[in-house]
């Protein structure tokens, strides 16, 4: 005779967990003010699931939540076959470098557009303008010249038809001759 316990149905093991990552919900559109939050959530997601999935899978999941400018950037990186796509940390650092820099450029752009001499010594206004213009390497020279002229007091405007660099040199020279007073 067979013991009753042997005839009883054996409990089934739990179903194998499908090797499917949990969804990642935060969205990033390239807006600099949203970057830190997105990166924090992305690194947290990577920390929780990094041992379960290859980095390329996690990069793919995160990239599904990129929109607008960030999505355009990802498409370009993907089309180039960038090695950052194979390593989550490299990918997030590249994302950070791309969009953190844009935040600095946006700040510089806003500062340049608001900049006015208003009695500042010319050397100081030139120095500050050049510092900000250095963050706007993609701006055409004509636009920089326009905003530089806009920020100067009228009597300090350089003559037309000279290069941007020459205009800065003329302004600096004028202020050096006048002892930095500008008048």
TrEMBL record:
It comes from the Eukaryota. Pfam families: Retrotrans_gag. Residues 1-22 are annotated as: Disordered. InterPro entries: Retrotrans_gag_dom (IPR005162). Residues 63-153 form the Retrotransposon gag domain. This is Retrotransposon gag domain-containing protein. It comes from Ophiophagus hannah (King cobra).
